[in-house]
From TrEMBL:
SMART domains found in the cross-reference section: PKS_ER
Lineage top rank: taxon: Bacteria
Organism: Prauserella marina
GO molecular function: oxidoreductase activity
Name of this chain's protein: NADPH:quinone reductase
């Protein structure tokens, strides 16, 4: 079948490992279902996989794509939840020590077909296209958990999103605005800041800017490049929710501020199946349409990867059949 995959790990030149070609059709284990993929979105995780981060050498070649929307063999339209748990696990899906994301152990969604455990598909909201629905399973779910499960933020409070145009960042802006937060954003160019305002941010600032006042919560996926600003932007008792470190993990911890102002730093990863169900319902009830910056045919996946690597994003990059 058609597939976009990583042939091996390449730390320095991840795009050299990307292949748009053919892979064997998957077998369907008992208790799993086959999804005919209609659309899937690109996440930074796919670039990490090409670099060999978070994947064992023996797992290559690996079909990329850790979210998606499509159709089951019986015609049901579904959204994929890509956190795959061990059969014996009960409790928060994301805390299972044996959990994997699609593309870490099991093949991903950038293909004609993907197989997942039956519990890992949820009904696609009728109001979302396949392309829009495909963005829900990773970037949007991550943003949902950061904002509504981890931050403790209440409507009327102020949130700062570091980064304006990325998948998680745009989801945070759209979700936060719809929930009644005051949404502030930093973005690296005027275009990106204008996009954030168009998506609902009340104000967008240059990275590192002094803000009009300190905020209740900061949402971090950038890491090294923004961490110090994140700590300095918080009110006493405020919270940073962090789910990524795109620019590097070795941030100065600003420990004196953390303890003196009694700040909280909370990690967040993906989200549970129930949280994805709640997200899908919320998006439908609030009439939110996730921002897609670029929709490309799967055959042109290389262009999407190149743009993400360059930082040329304007919302989610989506591939469709
Ligand atoms: N833990 C989890 O479950 C989870 C899930 C999803 C994503 N993540 C992580 O979250 C991060 C973002 O993922 P994504 O898929 O949203 O990626 P993306 O779409 O490529 O977005 C990258 C974001 O980083 C921002 N950024 C700001 N300064 C940057 C700098 N100096 N270098 C690079 N980027 C900078 C960009 O802001 P501008 O708009 O200003 O360019 C943009 O908003 C990644 O590290 C990813 O691994 C984690």
């Amino acid at each position: 079948m058609f597939a976009v995959y990583a042939k091996e790990a390449n730390t320095d030149d991840p795009l050299a490992s990307l292949v748009v070609g053919e892979r064997p059709e998957p077998e369907v284990p008992a208790g799993w279902v086959r999804v005919s993929v209609k659309a899937a979105s690109l996440n930074m995780h796919d670039l990490w996989t090409l670099r060999g981060v978070g994947i064992k050498q023996e797992q290559f070649p690996m079909i990329l794509g850790c979210d998606g929307a499509g159709v089951l063999d019986d015609g049901t339209e579904v959204v994929i939840h890509s956190v795959i748990n061990d059969d014996s696990w009960h409790g928060d899906d994301t805390l299972d020590p044996k959990r994997t994301l699609l593309t870490e152990k099991h093949q991903g969604t950038f293909a004609d077909y993907v197989v997942v455990p039956a519990r890992n598909v949820l009904p696609k909201p009728a109001g979302l296209s396949f392309a829009e629905a495909s963005t829900m399973g990773t970037a949007w779910l991550t943003a949902y958990r950061m904002l509504f499960v981890k931050s403790g933020l209440r409507p009327g409070q102020t949130m700062l999103v570091q980064g304006a145009s990325g998948g998680v960042a745009t989801a945070l802006v759209q979700l936060g605005r719809a929930a009644g937060m005051r949404v502030w954003v930093t973005g690296r160019s005027e275009d990106k800041r204008a996009l954030a305002v168009e998506l609902g941010a009340h104000e967008a600032f240059e990275p590192g800017s002094r803000l009009p006042e300190r905020v209740d919560a900061v949402f971090e996926t950038v890491g090294k490049a923004t961490w110090s600003h994140s700590v300095k932007s918080l009110k006493p008792g405020g919270v940073i929710v962090v789910s990524g470190s795109t620019s590097g993990p070795d941030a100065s911890a600003e420990l004196q501020r953390v303890f003196f102002l009694q700040l909280r730093v909370i990690g967040s990863t993906m989200g549970t199946r129930d949280e994805l169900a709640n997200l899908l319902s919320y998006v439908e009830l609030a009439g939110i349409r996730p921002r897609i910056g670029d929709e490309l045919p799967f055959t042109e996946a290389g262009r999407g990867f190149t743009n993400m690597l360059k930082g040329a994003t304007a919302g989610k990059i989506v591939f469709a059949h």
